[in-house]
Specification:
Length: about 300
């Protein structure tokens, strides 16, 4: 089966080194196997992702030497498809409206919170509401989110880079939101729907998303979609231990492109990725021939200073 990878940036600001690191490795993994790489702009939250950021991300990828196959896919143009996926889940009675506010959820006692769960486990307050209770809440002006019922079942994977990972969905995640009360489609739904529609066979991304993968596997099963292979990457950390983020303006690609040539920056990223012993100018294409997951570290990488 031929490999199809994807670049899936969230264009809510300027691209930073962490995004470039993930994109380079996704690109190398696919291209080193002679595979395709597709581009999807995850601009679901359109007001926060104006077109100029998507444009900027594409310019940054080109500047780095990362190309892609086919036309870019914009999640902001695919709401009808996400609605179709929701309708399919609804037909299986897997969805229910949830009227809980963030404040109510914070006040509610939760079941044992999972060590690696990003959010508290949803306690299921709206799971069994009657139609009358729902109507009463709506009459009071509450707009519901849509949640997906999860089973008391363990979903597991063997990550291609980090190894085995598993979570019990009911105990460690809880029923999760697929459409927010303001109508915004959730990342979990869009990513699963689009990876399937684009026939993506491998997903390479930061390990902060590893804990979302059991949810995504379950959603793939409920929608009848195949499971891609997953490879989660170590994160780039600032010297104080925080994850590099868009807040570090000086590490934005736009700022760095004024100080470095693209091959120099790719060399630094490749060095952090274990692909070069010392940072030396190189292009993504040069690296593809030698790429191997075995060389990539599994521990997070502290970025002290750029050479
Ligand atoms: N858009 C996400 C990000 O930029 C990646 C989502 C994914 O790869 O599943 O972090």
């Amino acid at each position: 089966m031929s490999v199809v990878g994807r670049l899936a940036p969230s264009p809510s600001g300027e691209m930073h080194l962490g995004n470039a690191f993930a994109a380079l490795l996704a690109w190398l993994s696919a291209r080193s196997q002679g595979g395709q790489i597709l581009l999807r702009l995850e601009d679901l939250d359109l007001p926060r992702c104006p077109a100029r950021f998507s444009q900027g991300v594409m310019e940054d990828f080109c500047w780095l030497g990362l190309d892609w196959d086919n036309d870019p896919v914009y999640q902001s143009q695919r709401f009808r498809y996400y609605e179709d996926c929701l309708a399919r889940l609804d037909a299986k009675a897997l969805l229910y409206p949830c009227y809980c506010t963030r404040r109510e959820l914070h006040a509610a006692p939760t079941e044992a919170s999972a060590p690696h769960a990003a959010a508290p486990v949803y306690p299921g307050r709206c799971r069994e509401l009657t139609q009358a209770q729902r109507m009463e809440l709506e009459a009071r002006g509450r707009r519901p989110a849509l949640r997906l019922r999860v089973p008391d079942q363990v979903y597991s994977l063997i990550d291609g880079h980090l190894g085995p990972y598993a979570a019990n969905l009911a105990h460690e995640v809880g029923d999760f939101i697929l459409r927010r009360s303001d109508g915004l489609y959730a990342y979990q739904l869009a990513v699963v729907a689009d990876d399937a529609a684009m026939e993506v066979t491998e997903v390479v991304r930061g390990r902060d998303l590893l804990s979302s993968t059991p949810q995504q596997l379950y959603l793939q099963d409920t929608l009848g979609f195949p499971h891609p292979r997953y490879f989660h990457l170590p994160l780039l950390l600032a010297p104080d231990g925080r994850r590099l983020s868009k807040r570090e303006g000086d590490l934005s690609l736009l700022a760095l492109s004024k100080r470095y040539k693209p091959r120099e920056l790719v060399g630094v990223l490749a060095h952090w990725a274990g692909l070069l012993d010392v940072p030396a100018p190189v292009s993504p294409t040069d690296l593809a021939a030698e790429f191997s997951w075995e060389r990539v570290p599994t521990e997070d990488i502290t970025v002290t200073a750029l050479p």
